[in-house]
Amino acid sequence: MIKLEPLAGMYQTLEHEFLVYKKLSRGIGIPGVHWFGTEAGFNTMVMDGLGQSLDNLFVNCNFQFTLKTVLLLAGQLVSGFNF
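Now predict its structure.
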């Protein structure tokens, strides 16, 4: 998957997102990132696609996740961390 962010935009967050993904790269369900740079007036990040985005899933669930879904997502988020 390729994500683009216009250099002329008000906020520049894609590089930060890239760095966060790099730090979380060994976590379950965290996509691998392969490259970040600037091309043709855009910040560009190349990453693995893992299927449907959370945003798409949320829309498909009429903007409300079940408690089970929230708990499964939370479990995935913390499973890659060593406390």
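The helical segments are 14-23, 54-60, 67-79.
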